[in-house]
Amino acid sequence: MKKSLAFALAGGLTALAMSPALAQKIRIGCTSSADCGTAMVAADNGIFEKMGLDVEMTRIALNSNIPPALLSNSLEIGGPTSSVFLQAADGGLDLVAVAGASYMHEASNEGTVAVIRDGVTIEKAADFAGKKVGVPGFGAYIHILFVRYLMENGVDPASVNLVETSFPSMPDVIRTGAVDAVLSGGPIVARILESKTGHLGPKFVSELGGDAPIIFYAATRDWATANPEAVQKFRAAIAEAAALIEADREVAIASVAKFTEQKPELVRATPPSKYKPEITADGLGWWLDLMKKQNLLQGSVDAANLLAP
């Protein structure tokens, strides 16, 4: 009996020694949009697993919740918008960018719009004055660009009642009349239009233009410094996923629909997100200049110091 147990234990230890190293656990948090499409595709198509990473994708209601989640160790990697990330860094949170994700381009700029509740008329920037408008997180990409749009058209942003509204709740707040408009993009817009409770308003991002990063993948500096191999594997996985999406958009449609819990046909009907695996100081610099003009940064932020090695 004892001999059999000894052989069993020895066999188990031998098998353990011969098995591959346990994959490193990484929790990735993103909002319910297509901006983290590369991570979604890497998770769904075994790319992370192949790299030795055990990834869990988590939906975050508001983009502004991502930096606190990183600091509290609820996430290892998150997908903040450039503006949310820079405000967090300006506020003293020691975060670094580890890889690029979505970026502004003609189609995405065209698809990020104001959706107006039926019965309300908003055709130009001045029409937003006195209206209640849902934004997907204060300080997030869409919020910052909308404020810029108002300012460039001579509208005082304080004259617009802006309220935080998560992407998934936007169809409901439009339907119930809780807001006059929401600022959104992707399948959320298609879903509202399909329900016939709202209609397209100003394409404010298209009017502004730009090709800067929308969101990218970030981590705490402590985590990135302690896990350089995981960072490199993550970057390799994101690059492979970006190439896969470039070759076959249907792969991205399937993963985005799954993560956002939207119908694939709604995702397919929206302008596709574009992805760059790299993140540069110049890309962050575009946002720094924009945010300084809106007095959104208090200190001096060095973009180059915010990139993980």
UniProtKB/TrEMBL annotation:
List GO BP terms, alphabetically: alkanesulfonate transmembrane transport
Give the subcellular location. Answer: Periplasm
SUPFAM superfamilies per the UniProt record, alphabetical: Periplasmic binding protein-like II
**Which keywords does this Swiss-Prot/TrEMBL entry list?**
Signal
Q: Which residues form the SsuA/THI5-like domain?
A: 39-246
Signal sequence, start to end: 1-23
What InterPro entries does this protein's entry cite? SsuA/THI5
Q: What GO cellular component term, any one, is given? A: periplasmic space
State the superkingdom: Bacteria
User: Taking the first listed entry, what is the main subcellular location of this protein, grouped into a coarse class?
Assistant: periplasm
Q: Does the keyword Signal apply?
A: yes
Q: Respond yes or no to whether keyword Signal is given for this record.
A: yes
What Gene3D superfamilies does the entry give?
Answer: Periplasmic binding protein-like II (3.40.190.10)
Q: Which PANTHER family match?
A: ALIPHATIC SULFONATES-BINDING PROTEIN-RELATED, TAURINE-BINDING PERIPLASMIC PROTEIN
The similarity comment for this entry is: Belongs to the bacterial solute-binding protein SsuA/TauA family.
Q: What is this protein called?
A: ABC transporter substrate-binding protein
| Source species taxonomy | Bacteria, Pseudomonadati, Pseudomonadota, Alphaproteobacteria, Rhodobacterales
